[in-house]
Write a structure and sequence with these properties.
The chain is mostly beta strands and 126 residues long. 0% of the residues lie in helices and 48% in strands.
Length: 126
Amino acid sequence: QVQLVESGGGLVQAGGSLRLSCAASGGTFSNYVMGWFRQAPGKEREFVAGISRSGARTYYADSVKGRFTISRDNAKNTVYLQMNSLKPEDTAVYYCAATGSVSSTGWALLAEYDYWGQGTQVTVSS
């Protein structure tokens, strides 16, 4: 059983930056594919970014490409989401997620992920 705890959310002005962290425990972190998702009020949870076990491969939603960067430190059991050039539409609760395996077309699918954190709020003011 993997436990995930997100941190780093907060209030930031448009154009600003935040770095989210997700600390994992209870499993061998390097065995898990990791993802970041977000959910805005009244909307469905959506994929933001994903990273392979080694960190060699990353995937992004079109809405965040070029602005967000996902990375991981397997020695620290932590995955990060660096968010730059933030926009008001990035406002959401951000969740990290883990899965032992993901299909080649499944990175963005919530059902592919087995473990979820409790989320951290990101609010971007205009």
